[in-house]
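Reopening this one. Same input as before:
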Amino acid sequence: MQAQPGQPLPSGFLTSPQLRFYAVGDIHGRLDLLEKVNARIETDLKRRPCWRSVRVFLGDHVDRGPHSREVLDYLMALEGTCDTVFILGNHETILTDFIQDPTVLPTWLSVGGLETLISYGIRPPRNPSPADQSRLAAEFAEALPVSHLNFIRNLRPCFAFDDVFFVHAGVRPGVPLSKQSLTDLCWIRDDFLLHDGLFERLVIHGHTPVRTPEIRPNRINIDTGAYATGQLTCMWIEGGRMGFL
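Same output, byte for byte:
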C-alpha cells in the first residue's frame, strides 16, 4: 500500500478527502515568484490528480515588490480559469484608504507603497507635501483600473471550510471566528501569535514573516517574506493531511 503524502494536520484537524487546497502566502508584488508557484501547483495537479482543487491567496498581494499591478492582473486572469479564493490583507486596506484619505500616503510609502505607485506609472516626490498627497491620490485613483479596484473591494476577510480557517493576519483569542473584527483579521500580531490554545479551526495565515513555515498546534504561518527572501510558500491541504510545494 502506497504511503500517503505529506503529514497530518496539527491537533487532529480534518478536511474533506475530495478537496485539495493550495494556500499561497504574501506575494507583495513578486510576479516572478507567483508565476513559479502557480507552475508548481499545475505540476502537482498533473502528478496527483484530485476531484477538486481551490487556490487560496492569503492577502498582501501588493506593495514592496516591483510588480503589484501585474500581480493583480495575473490573479484576476487566474480567477477566470480555476477555483480561487482571495483574502484581504492589510496592505490592500492601506491602498484603498489612500484613495479616500491622501494623508495616509506617508504611512503607505513607509511599508512599500512606493513600489505600487511606480507600477502604475506614478512617481511621488521624496517628501510629498499635503498638496502633493492630494494630487497623487487623484492621479492614483485615475491610474487604478476599475477592475483592479473592484477586485480589491471584493477580497474576502477570511475563508472557512471544514476544520481550516484561512485569514491574512490571524484572529482574536476568545472571540468566535464568526465574530472577528476586520481590523484583527488584517492586522493582529502578538495577541494571536502568542496564544497557545486551540481555535475552533486550524488557522492558516500570513502577515508576519518567518524564515520557514511555522507549524503550531493551533495555526500555520506561511508568510516567508517573499519580497525580500525570494521564497513564496505554497502549502497543500487534503483529507486532513498537508505538505509544501
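So the earlier flakiness isn't reproducible anymore. For the record, The mean pLDDT is 96.
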